[in-house]
Amino acid sequence: xxxxxxIKEIRGFGYHGLFESERKEGQEFxxxxxxxxxxxxxxxxxxxxxxxxxxxxxxxxxSIIIGxxxxxxxxxxxxxxxxxxxxxxxxxxEVTVHKRSAPVGxxxxxxxxxxxxxx
Length: 119
Prior knowledge:
CATH architecture: 2-Layer Sandwich
Number of domains: 1
Radius of gyration: 16 Å
Distance between the termini: 16 Å
Oligomer: single chain
Mean pLDDT: 95
Strand content: 25-35%
Shape: elongated
Helix content: 25-40%
Number of strands: 4
Number of helices: 4
CATH superfamily: GTP cyclohydrolase I, C-terminal domain/NADPH-dependent 7-cyano-7-deazaguanine reductase, N-terminal domain
């Protein structure tokens, strides 16, 4: 049996994108996460050492959003997923990266990529 932690709208100002204007001016990105984990030890012990500390997951994700620029949001999602899998005891992670200000030439509400990776 597995459990899930859902985190919505981790926001950060980043400089990701293909165009020079995106790299120079930047824009806000947001990330949603769903972590699949086995939390039975934490449910019994009530001890953070047996759990996934979601405040640390959020801090790490935010640092990646505002960190080193990449061309594609697909790459940004992959970097976040791999960092979570490497750092935390999770079975799998689903990462959705939202780019609401993408320069696509017409008004849009959102562009997002969603990936799922397993340990």
